[in-house]
Amino acid sequence: MMNARRLVIALGILTILAIALSFWTFREARLQKREMERTMQAEVSVVARSLVPALAAASSSARELKELVGWKLMDNARLLGRLEKGAAMPGRWLGRICEENGLDALAILDDRCRIVEQSGDLGRLDLTQPVLQEVCSGKVQEFVFDWPEEGGHGLVAVAVATSGGGGVVVGTEASVAFAFAGRLGVSNLLQATAGTGNVLYLSFQERSGGSMTEASWDGGPVPLQAVAQLRGRSVFEVAVPVEGPAGTSGVLRVGLDEAPLARATSSAARRTALVSLAMTALVLASSALALVIRARSAERVENLQHLSDLEKQRSRSERLSSAGELSAGVAHEIRNPLNAISIAAQRIRRQKSEEDVCYRFADTILSEVVHMEEILKGFLDLAKPTRGEKETVDMVVLAGEVVRLLEAEGAEQGIGLLLEHSEQVIAVHGDRACLRRSIVNLIRNAIQVSPRDSTVEIALASFGEKVRITVSDRGHGMEGDVRERAFDPFFTTRAEGSGLGLPLVRRVSEEHGGWAQLLDREGGGVNAMMEISRGKA
Q1: Among 1.25.40, 3.10.450, 3.30.450, 3.30.300, what is the CATH number of 85-181?
Q2: What is the tens place of the pLDDT at every residue in 252-270?
Q3: How many Å separate Cα 489 from the centre of its chain?
Q4: What is the pLDDT of residues 112-127, one digit of tens each?
Q5: Which of 199, 329, 380, 529 has the fewest CB atoms within 10 Å, measured from its CB?
Q6: What is the dotted CATH code of the domain comprising 391-533?
Q7: Helix or strand run (H / E) with residue 243
Q8: What global pTM score does this model have?
Q9: Are 119 and 168 in contact (CB under 8 A)?
């Protein structure tokens, strides 16, 4: 009788434990799923908030492209008009002026709009327009020809009256401007982002009946509404309102691959089921519970750390985007007067002999203009919101080209370059130009900080789907605070530096599925490392 009572009590306790553990298992699974959903929503938020400045920059750049092209042509035409002073410009100069200033057509007109001298083909430009007649007669000072239809061919051209009667017409091919607008557009930005990380597709719908732009990981259509499955992939979608500068506003839909969420949920269900079975044994109840609590605590810490990393990534992306917008604005403001300086210096040099002091001064000015153009190119590289076309790139060949390019620069400072690689061919799928600029920046930085009679070592190694480039110098190394800020835009410790090289390296690394960092080298110096994904190679 006593044994029967004990059996009933034991069964009752086990039943209560089973119910409690079942409730706990169900609750844990739901908590796990909600935490993963919050993490994925945070990832979507980071993607959306990082894209807002770039969307604004792309939208603004595309709208302002016509004005920028018109201003550049008008500046060239005004300067040529002032230099003419009513006299005909020798025809042998026109082709050279077009080549040096990026023009496709240049014509000098008399006071009846007849062509006196020309370089290039004016195409279908109508020189009989009444307004152009008034320009040549001096009644109207400036005139802008109508743009060709978008996607078509033809010249974007302007005309400016000269002081002695007649006019100057300059033009550039419209298809080049349209192609540049496409590279700046929102569509290209979304296509560059879709397929990276867990992002399956993006769709940006402008408000007030605006156009919709979309991109997916496989190039297929994006559904008009949220779906659970898309072409065999489970989807977790979040819609984020976008409010940005330059009138960019709307809704950005981001579809993430739900497979990680399903795997995490399934893993949590299996884990909690096993724990439930183990805890039915009263002897192991306390130890099993302790293990679960410890595991849950570690997971919460990991989730918090992941959220913190995402926030840092968002902050870094916003800083890079802001720096890019500032760089693009500065570059635009400087390039117009720089063009005028270059044209004036070229004119002076053509009118003087090589022994004349003015010739040497003009030559010096043109050399410095080229140097400033290189600096502006670095600004514009940081400002680009999108990547170029990707292709299969042999990193061994690419690194060898860069080493040969910089060998002379290192030799001038008594520094050698040594390239080592673990394999004869290390192929990746990426943007060749961006990867090349990044390797150039890393090696050039190492040359600039290395002592004389030392060697800069460049090592290429592959680790499964990852490729790592390590550039090692024997310089003085970096303090901790300097190393932390080295990837911030415009931060530099050298008087001649621009602070744009390492931020560009980090941006290119992240866009190729990797990272970049600086580490102290044993024995002195720094190891600058850049890791990228092989991609589809």
Answers
A1: 3.30.450
A2: 888 888 777 667 666 766 6
A3: 13
A4: 888 888 888 887 788 8
A5: 329
A6: 3.30.565.10
A7: strand 233-243
A8: 0.39
A9: no
